[in-house]
Design a protein that fits this description.
There is one protein chain. It contains 16 helices and 29 strands. It has 743 residues and is α+β, with helices and mostly antiparallel strands. The protein has 3 domains: 201 residues, tricorn interacting facor f3 domain (Immunoglobulin-like, Sandwich), CATH 2.60.40; 247 residues, Neutral Protease Domain 2 (Neutral Protease, domain 2, Orthogonal Bundle), CATH 1.10.390; 133 residues, no CATH class. Strands 1, 2, 4, 5, 6, 9, 12, 14 and 15 form a 9-stranded mixed β-sheet that branches. Strands 17-18-19-21-20 form a 5-stranded mixed β-sheet, with helices on one face. The longest helix has 22 residues. It is found in: Cell membrane. It is a lipid-anchor; GPI-anchor.
Length: 743
């Protein structure tokens, strides 16, 4: 599953106990295998489906009722039967449906025998093919005619709309799936096709091999008449005739990504095939869905247009995210949706890490700081902070996506650095049975304890450290105040989101006299509200905390240290500070300025050094931070100082890398990050001359996007009307801005 449009409701499962409490399926039985047959009818204007099902289960207690999920499907009591493994029929008293919690309960006349196995049969159930979550249908018209598709998207509670099931992540079972279809269609499912049967009326029945144990939300099947690529190793892509010719590069990338993840995790991919299905953009709720062996994508996220630079990074990272889920989510499955961050945070981290292994020159792990860390800070500041583990109530949504994705992935990256890459990778090799955060920490701790490589955790275990990062809202702010007589550094931590919250913070730091940014493990652990750095201190030069911004926290300094940092940035030696820390300093300084913690002159004066900067990562931090500052403080008195600064001191100094510097990774970055920032300027600043000046400065005298980005219609800044405004501002400000011909 991928982010942005993810807004699925989590429902409950049993009889209400009280207001505000949530409902879960009782753990009185355990499903072990589903034998499922489905037949969609695509020949009508209101497509339907029918099916039959055998659920093999084990009784875990002598219960007289079985409760599972069913939603918007019709099940007759007469179609339900239960037989024990000894062949004895289990007498059913009655069945009841509870639409409020989407359950179907079977009451029995005698209790089940604990630990005995049973077959629960639904001889027939029916339902309608809808849109979005569940079993859905679409009709697409192309130049080659009509394409039809019925497919599934089950996360988080869609499986119950297709067939009766135990629709919680912890109820894993194997699946044998059969699909009945007309000859003009073909079918797909999680596993390989085992065999095909011809039915008496000309229909065909495709029977698929049994899957490994898996949760219902990653079950997938489809009946369709799309086009397909040839099989490339284990991979094949399915799409409409209008898209199929644009998916061959992703097909090649898929082989590299799967191998990269197998190599890193040390665990082979669990199936013999991996299909990719590109569906119309309005067809599914999410941008992609990680079904085991059959990944669904919105067409735009699998369609590769080599002339559109933005497609490159989007396709690669979307694919890497879903591939990561084949391990983190499908193998390692959260026990319940409270812990969905285990799946999504790891997948988000590995979408960047895996893609960076495939395309190392793109510097995606550097872009991670801009896309994930900085954006995650902004989202929590703007939209509200939440803990990682998020108790999902009945009619509530998942935690906001920026908690599962940006916040969680940033914390995973922090773990990678304070544990070290090698320890983290070895722990990943071991952790594939974990289902709760405590399981995760315990398995990682076992690797730490057994390793000859020592890891400094300040006398704590990993669970103690991660408790604060998992359960606290937001992130900490560390304030460092230097004593320029003794060299001691006083540290204070506080939360801008909840009073009294404390974190176990991995602190590492560097001085100007020994600028070693490579060792990103913790120098010490900051667990109290106040602490003092006594060792390896100096009164001279600058101090910088949080090397490569590996920890998920902001850092503020006393004004003297800020001035010393600015001095080195404005010198020829500015590259002695790591590029990720240059980006961090800009992002943090603007944040503290618009929080009125430091003067706005600090980030503005610091930004003057960008006249020398040739790396795009600090430019992204500057653009995003300044855009948010101007938007947030529109009309604030500090904005007058900003306007004066930009007009009189800064406008001729900022010269981002020119068109000759458009390497592939630079193009990707500029389009996705800088022009994203420009869109913020456009939205909030274009009603005044200052907004125009900022855009001109940021883009540079001869900087403009490649022509393929100029056909975005009225939504783009580079429209005909905007172009005319640009010329007006150019004349008014005496700036020489070159624009390409309008297209």
């Amino acid at each position: 599953m991928h982010r942005f449009l993810f807004a699925l409701l989590i429902t409950a499962i049993a009889i209400p106990i009280g207001k505000g409490q949530r409902y879960r399926l009782p753990k009185t039985v355990k499903p072990t295998r589903y034998v499922l047959t489905m037949e969609p009818n695509l020949s009508t204007n209101a497509p339907t489906f029918s099916g039959n099902l055998i659920i093999q289960f084990q009784a875990l207690s002598p219960t007289t009722s079985i409760t599972l999920h069913a939603n918007d499907i019709k099940i007759a009591t007469s179609s339900v039967s239960i037989v024990s493994s000894t062949g004895a029929n289990v007498r059913i008293w009655r069945t009841t449906s509870n639409p409020e919690v989407q359950t179907f309960t079977i009451n029995l006349r005698q209790p089940l025998v604990s630990l005995q196995h049973y077959n629960l049969t639904f001889s027939k159930f029916t339902g309608g093919l809808g849109t979005g979550e569940g079993f859905f249908f679409d009709r697409i018209f192309t130049n080659e005619g009509e394409s039809l598709i019925a497919a599934t998207h089950f996360q988080s509670k869609g499986a119950r709309k297709a067939f009766p099931c135990f629709d919680e992540p912890s109820f894993k079972a194997t699946f044998i799936i059969s699909l009945i279809r007309q000859p003009k269609f073909f079918s797909l499912s999680n596993q390989e096709l085992d065999h095909m049967e011809e039915l008496s009326d000309g229909r065909l029945k495709d029977v698929y091999k049994e899957t490994p144990p898996m949760s219902t939300y990653i079950v997938a099947f489809s009946v369709l008449n799309f086009k397909s690529t040839p099989v490339y190793e284990r991979h094949q892509i399915y799409a409409t005739s209008e898209v199929i010719n644009d998916v061959f590069v992703p097909l090649q990338l898929s082989v590299l990504m799967l191998k990269s993840l197998e190599d890193y995790t040390g665990i082979a991919y669990g199936l013999n095939k991996l299909d990719h299905l590109a569906v119309p953009n309005s067809f599914i709720i999410d941008n992609a869905m990680e079904n085991w062996g059959l990944i669904l994508y919105r067409e735009r996220n699998l369609k590769y247009n080599p002339s559109a630079v933005r497609d490159i990074k989007r396709v690669v990272t979307f694919m890497a995210h879903e591939f990561s889920h084949q391990w983190f989510g499908n193998l390692v499955t959260p026990e319940f949706w409270d812990y969905i961050w285990i799946s999504e945070s790891f997948a988000t981290y590995f979408q960047y890490f895996t893609a960076s292994q495939i395309q190392p020159t793109w510097r995606l792990m550097d872009q991670f700081n801009i896309d994930i860390i900085h954006q995650g800070f902004l989202e929590e500041e703007e939209k509200g902070a939440h803990p990682l583990t998020y108790e999902v109530q009945d009619d509530q949504r998942f935690p906001p996506f920026y908690v599962m994705y940006e916040k969680g992935a940033s914390i995973i990256r922090m773990m990678v650095h304070f544990l070290s890459h090698s320890i983290f990778q070895k722990a990943v090799h071991r952790q594939f049975q974990c289902v709760t955060p405590q399981d995760l920490y315990r398995t990682f701790q076992e690797e730490i304890n057994g390793s000859v490589q020592k890891v400094f955790l300040g006398g704590m275990n990993l669970g103690d450290i991660m408790q604060s990062w998992e359960t606290n809202k937001g992130y900490p702010i560390v304030t460092a105040t230097r004593n320029y007589n003794t060299g001691f550094v006083t540290l204070k931590q506080h939360s801008p989101f909840e009073n009294g919250a404390l974190w176990s913070i991995p602190i590492n730091y560097v001085y100007s006299f020994q600028p070693n940014f490579q060792d990103t493990t913790a120098s010490f652990w900051f667990t109290k509200e106040y602490d003092i750095i006594y060792e390896n201190v100096t009164t001279g030069g600058w101090l910088l905390i949080n090397k490569q911004q590996t920890g998920r926290y902001r850092v503020n300094y006393d004004l003297e240290n800020w001035q010393r940092i600015i001095a080195v940035l404005q010198s020829d030696n500015f590259q002695s500070i790591h590029v990720l820390n240059r980006a961090q300093l800009l992002n943090d300084a603007f944040y503290f300025a618009y929080q009125k913690i430091i003067p706005v002159s600090i980030p503005l004066t610091m930004s003057e050094y960008l006249a020398r900067e040739k790396d795009y990562i600090p430019f992204a931090a500057f653009c995003n931070s300044l855009a948010y500052y101007l938007y947030t403080y529109n009309g604030n008195t500090d904005k007058d100082e900003t306007k004066f600064f930009l007009n009189h001191r800064f406008k001729d100094q900022i010269t981002p890398p020119g068109p000759n510097d458009y390497t592939q990774e630079y193009k990707i970055f500029r389009v996705r990050s800088v022009f994203k920032s420009v869109s913020v300027f456009v939205k909030y600043c274009l009603r005044n001359v200052l907004g125009f000046i900022i855009i001109i400065m940021v883009l540079g005298r001869s900087i403009y996007p490649p022509p393929q980005y100029l056909h975005q219609g009225s939504s783009t800044f580079f429209s005909a009307r905007a172009k005319n405004r640009f010329h007006i501002v150019r004349r008014a400000t005496m700036l020489h801005v070159t624009l390409p011909p309008h297209q």
